[in-house]
Predict the structure.
Amino acid sequence: MGASAHASTDKYTQFVSRGLGKDLAKKLGLPQPAILRRYEPTAALLTGPVLVEGSSHGAEELAAKLLGWGLDVRRHATPKEKLGAIIIVLDELAHPDELSAPVRSVGASLRDLLPSGRIVTISRPAVDGLEPAVAAARHGVDGIVRSVAKELRAGATANGILLGGGVEPASASAMAALRFFLSGRSAFVDGQFLTAGTPGTLDAVDWERPLAGTVAVVTGAARGIGAAIARTLARDGAQVVAVDVPAAGDHLAAVANEIHGTALQLDITAVDAGQRILDLGFSRYGRLDIVVHNAGITRDKLLANMDAARWDSVIAVNIASQLRMNAAFLADGRFAKGPRIVSVASTSGIAGNRGQSNYAASKAGVIGMVHATAPLLAPSGGAINAVAPGFIETEMTAKIPFATREVARRLNSLSQGGRPEDVAEAIAFFASEAAAGINGNVLRVCGQNLVGQ
Ligand code: NAD
């Protein structure tokens, strides 16, 4: 954990993470947020051994692949041995009775999980048409993951992978999702599932610079989450076109210069926004591979007081522009080889939020758009996914009155707000070659926010 990570962790979290503050918080029963393990390109994927629970053929294959990643793999728990992660492979469930042995066995090892450790389940989704007992067993995993995530301490998280049709635990898309969950890239992702679809291959993946050779556009890149996305994609090897409104021109230029990218001053509600982005990508770099729709605005008002300007501007920026730009991208033959689109939604679009009917409509709309667009991109090997942030520490949330902000940032399983980088890491994962076959997902980056969960 570098010094920079401490510097941008909120003051309360720093105070209770050591010495007197830690003792005090414990005595008073105050939240004790941990300083999370976050991704650093040169750091180890995980510290401590990985226990793989499960006796299926899929579990065997998966354990062998983890050895190939240089991890210290255990097939049986050794009493008192500290663990970096526990992976529970439940790919052959036929009845809820079968959950008992593997899940209780994991329970017996939970106290040995290291700080910022990981629990990851691998199972199959409860799709329509299954035997009721099979569906019950499969859906049971959902309850287990979400509950265990709430029990874990010290920055540890629990997440799950759902295997799509024809996908096995050791298939490339499942392994890519597993690596994301094990790594510090998923620090603020807790109690969530990713569905792994059509398997590809991980043979040629460069884990240090997974976006090398790609060109990405990020909207709303002048500050906040968008600036973090631009920096993270550049760190992972992408050439970045950073887009924002002309009024944010100076900040935009600073971000673009810092990452040796290109600044494009553009209001994304312009009718020709998609075309202008494509034209710049192709004239400057000869390609465009990744689009991140991040720009967004809030104009909060209770619905009883909502005026047309507030409603219409939020819909125009947050969803109508994305629909129009995507239509332009998809109609252009140049953006055809396995394109990646990632949209920023919000937990407000999932759980709703008082005073945000316009914003929630736009963000729920993003989720609807992602589900409907995914099958259109699949034939070309492309993908569209959404990331739904919860409470993230940005200039926007810094303006929320102290008491409201303090409650909002603690109301999740990790008892802290996320950082813009946490959202950016999930987006970089979706944009990467390894995530081919992960399509149509909505991933919450919210520390398992208790709202709507
Ligand atoms: P922010 O206000 O700090 O940044 C948004 C950026 O988008 C700004 O630079 C702004 O100039 C730009 N932008 C706005 N309208 C634009 C337009 N028409 N054309 C081009 N650029 C435009 O916000 P943020 O906190 O960084 O949020 C980024 C995204 O994350 C948004 O979609 C937001 O809804 C979403 N989000 C944020 C949080 C949070 O806690 N901060 C939580 C959930 C979702």
Notes: Confidence is low (pLDDT under 50) at residues 1-7. Residues 219-220, 222-226, 243-245, 248, 267-269, 294-297, 317, 344, 346, 389, 391-392, 394-397 surround nicotinamide-adenine-dinucleotide (CB under 6 Å). Residues 302 and 354 are 7 Å apart (CA to CA).
